[in-house]
Design goal:
Keywords: Carboxypeptidase, Glycoprotein, Hydrolase, Protease, Signal. InterPro entries: AB_hydrolase_fold (IPR029058), Peptidase_S10 (IPR001563), Ser_caboxypep_ser_AS (IPR018202). Belongs to the peptidase S10 family. Its EC number is 3.4.16.-. The protein has about 625 residues and is α/β, with parallel strands linked by helices. It folds into 2 domains: about 280 residues, Alpha/Beta hydrolase fold, catalytic domain (Rossmann fold); about 190 residues, no CATH class. The chain has 16 helices and 17 strands. The strands form 4 sheets. Strands 1, 2, 3, 6, 7, 8, 9, 12, 13, 14 and 15 form an 11-stranded mixed sheet that branches. Strand 13 and strand 14 form a beta hairpin. Helix 4 crosses helix 5 and helix 5 crosses helix 13. Bound molecules: 2-acetamido-2-deoxy-beta-D-glucopyranose (12 copies). One 2-acetamido-2-deoxy-beta-D-glucopyranose (NAG) binds next to loops.
């Protein structure tokens, strides 16, 4: 079913200037002056990779860093490389050979999204984009660890790929990445024995489980690094269509603003959710065995590859254009069509409970709700086109990153290129549609949920910690889906967590940052006030979380057999089903939109009433 797979590959993408990688294109690394002619080693290579020349407009002092292309040793593909940029925590820490400190790699998702874009746009690196161009970042993660950003798979960002050399599946992504690591750690041998923390976002939730699986498949003597923890925000662990549809009822409970607090439509959503079998009941531990495989049954409207595509313009398919437009005045914006107002007659939607699946939408409940929002709910109803609807961060009808200068100009500047030893025969783009080297351009590998038990067993045996976390404001891959994935995993002899996650964690200023929970080496966290790109709105919050809970071993929220969660406290914000209501205000341009108190109260009373029915 190629169409379904197409949805799968696109949906997790966060998109700026989308372009499609031309399968006839190729690129190769550039040989800068002084490149050693001998194999990768600590002789001369670190000096070569050091970013010694000034970067354009960077007038503040940055940490020492190293950047360039490292071969993936892909058979018959001498030009295949992954591009890295690593920033030192302390002067000399990356080249140190007698350190046991953690080091970290960050991977973007997509597939096809550049990790350099994550560094520059998501407050991760020391230099970030702001409305005035490149600026220093107060919350750069090099403050607490050596951090490498790596463009992967080959061909993404500044990573190069020979003709026909794109990765064909997740196994290749993983073997390329491990070969890259083997060569990288020849240049920086101190990294070989230091604990490695691999973190990613979104579609990296595909890459990372496959990378770890391939690593576990290697004989210990063949491992060039020591994984200590891996993690991912909004990880793509389930099939995309399932991942996106099953949490919609919880998304609406979190942000009833989407449906204008309409009780009638809320009940209709609940009914459809139940009829479609999405009302999975989470228990702690999970009883009744594994959840069945869910398939989204489509209605008359058919399978709309991503959102609205078959009828008007697509929602998610064009989503990258939206964000591109909102943030960066992308040329895409000129191509989006104005949504005909005549299509917006809300009376055409009949929300009478009829006990049967909506014939038009089928179980594509996600699109039913989002279409309702666009049809009826101010301010979304003002959007020119469905493609302007940013479902990755609900309170921000205008993206929090609106107004940022796009990094494309800075990254492609020749001064930047030569300082970071980037290839010269390709344009750096924050996102390309990854082609997977097949005509459909789809990732043929199965979703990680299918081997999660085995992965957890290996991780437990090797003492590799796992972190899956999610932003509470993300409606694209909302946290309920992640909780389903966790309750559908068996490790340490138990299916799912044995206790419901409900411990509050706090940021450096004492503000509740979200919920954290860990059992048997698997940590789950929810971040308040965060969308799909978890680090954009509250960089100070995720900074503290990653420092303390991922790199650090903070045990707030830790539950184990010997120490009965002394540090567990009920999170006051959570509803009985684990939903944490989002913020009241919706931002639209310079307006803060709220609904009348009486409307909100009536909805909340109704919501709690339905929950009492369901959970008591
Ligand atoms: C990269 O590592 C592989 C495997 O050890 C090795 O065969 C290859 O020569 C290395 N590449 C370079 C350029 O040193
Ligand atoms: C990170 O380091 C920079 C410079 O070393 C410093 O100015 C900044 O305050 C640090 N940020 C945090 C959040 O500690
Ligand atoms: C590799 O790169 C070199 C130099 O850019 C180019 O001449 C050659 O054709 C490339 N080979 C492949 C297989 O892409
Ligand atoms: C688990 O480890 C074994 C080797 O011990 C390996 O063969 C297998 O592929 C690994 N599976 C996963 C999912 O990690
Ligand atoms: C979850 O529980 C409710 C209430 O008991 C029930 O109606 C529903 O069918 C259950 N969901 C599934 C998927 O079994
Ligand atoms: C639950 O896990 C099983 C495999 O253990 C898988 O077949 C099924 O699709 C999963 N269901 C969901 C909803 O993730
Ligand atoms: C709405 O649906 C209900 C139940 O199917 C039906 O009885 C009713 O006539 C419909 N209303 C309109 C205006 O179509
Ligand atoms: C949205 O508007 C379209 C066009 O009027 C209509 O066909 C559709 O039923 C509406 N959908 C919802 C969920 O309101
Ligand atoms: C550096 O800043 C100037 C002034 O804002 C701008 O015109 C120029 O394009 C910037 N250079 C790069 C490479 O971003
Ligand atoms: C940047 O470098 C490329 C290749 O080295 C060259 O073709 C191009 O003219 C340069 N651009 C500028 C503005 O100097
Ligand atoms: C259990 O938790 C305590 C902290 O509460 C920790 O010190 C101990 O190592 C944990 N034991 C295991 C087996 O995880
Ligand atoms: C929170 O967790 C504690 C045990 O850790 C449990 O007793 C309590 O019922 C939980 N509360 C909710 C709302 O799940």
């Amino acid at each position: 079913m190629p169409a379904i797979q197409t949805a799968l590959t696109l949906v997790f993408v966060i998109y700026h200037f989308a372009s499609f990688a031309d399968s006839r294109s190729w690129s190769s690394p550039h040989t800068y002056q002084g490149m050693p002619s001998h194999a990768y080693s600590e002789e001369e290579w670190p000096q070569y990779f050091e970013v010694a020349d000034p970067l354009p407009n960077v007038t503040w002092s940055s940490p020492r860093s190293f950047a360039g292309s490292i071969s993936t040793e892909t058979p018959n593909m001498p030009n295949n490389t992954l591009f890295f940029w690593g920033f030192e925590h302390l002067n000399g820490s990356i080249t140190s050979t007698n350190s046991s400190d953690p080091w970290m790699i960050y991977l973007a998702g997509g597939p096809g999204y550049s990790s350099m874009a994550s560094a520059l746009l998501e407050n991760l690196g020391p230099n970030i984009m702001s409305p005035i161009g490149v600026s220093p970042n107060e919350y750069s993660w090099h403050n607490f660890t050596d951090v490498f950003f790596v463009d992967s798979p080959v061909g993404t960002g500044y990573s190069t790929s020979g003709l026909g050399g794109a990765a064909g599946d997740e196994e290749r992504v993983a073997s390329d990445f491990l070969a890259f690591l083997e060569n990288l750690t020849k240049v920086f041998p101190g990294l070989q024995t230091r604990p490695l923390y691999l973190l990613g976002e979104s579609y990296a939730g595909r890459f990372i489980p496959y990378i770890l699986k391939a690593y576990f498949g290697l004989d210990a003597s063949r491992r060039s690094v020591k994984f200590r923890k891996v993690g991912c925000s909004s990880p793509a662990l389930l099939d995309a269509s399932v991942f996106e549809n099953i949490p919609i009822s919880q998304v609406v409970e979190t942000y009833p603003q989407l449906i204008g607090y309409d009780i009638g439509f809320f009940d209709y959503i609940q009914e459809q959710n139940h009829l479609c079998g999405y009302d999975l009941n989470l228990t702690y531990p999970q009883l009744g065995g594994k959840f069945p495989s869910l398939e989204v049954k489509y209605g008359n409207i058919g399978e709309r590859v991503h959102g609205f595509s078959r009828r008007s313009s697509s929602l998610i398919g064009h989503h990258r254009r939206t964000i591109a437009h909102k943030n960066f005045n992308s040329p895409w914006a000129k191509q989006t069509k104005t949504r005909p107002r005549s299509e917006n007659d809300p009376s055409s939607f009949n929300k009478t409970l009829a006990g049967e699946i909506n014939t038009y939408y089928g179980c594509d409940i996600r699109d039913m709700v989002l279409e309702y929002t666009l049809n009826n709910t101010y301010p979304w109803s003002e959007l020119r086109d469905a493609s302007y609807f940013d479902i990755t961060d609900i309170p921000y009808v205008n993206s929090p990153r609106a107004g940022l200068v796009h990094p494309q100009h800075w990254m492609n500047d020749n001064t930047t290129r030569s300082a970071i030893h980037a290839p010269v025969n390709k344009l750096w783009e924050s996102y390309i549609h990854y082609e997977w080297d097949n005509p459909e351009g789809v990732d043929p590998s199965s979703a990680p949920i299918n081997f999660m038990d085995e992965l957890m067993a290996n991780a437990t045996a090797d003492n590799v910690g796992i972190l899956w976390f999610s932003g509470n404001d993300d409606a694209l891959s909302a946290h309920f889906s992640l909780e389903v994935a966790i309750q559908n995993t068996t490790w340490g002899g138990v299916q799912g967590f044995a206790q419901r996650p409900n411990t509050t964690w706090y940021d450096d200023t004492g503000v509740p940052g979200g919920i954290v929970h860990e059992e048997r080496g698997l940590m789950y966290a929810l971040v308040y006030g965060a969308g799909h790109q978890i680090n954009t709105v509250h960089p100070e919050r995720v900074f503290a979380f990653v420092r303390d809970f991922f790199i650090g071993d903070m045990y707030v929220g830790l539950v184990n057999a010997t120490a009965k969660d002394t540090s567990t406290s009920n999170d006051p914000g959570a509803l009985p089903n684990g939903v944490v209501p989002g913020q009241r205000e919706i931002y639209y341009g310079s307006k803060n939109i709220t609904w009348p108190e009486v409307t909100v109260t009536a909805f909340n009373d109704h919501l709690l009433g339905t929950m009492m029915d369901r959970y008591q």
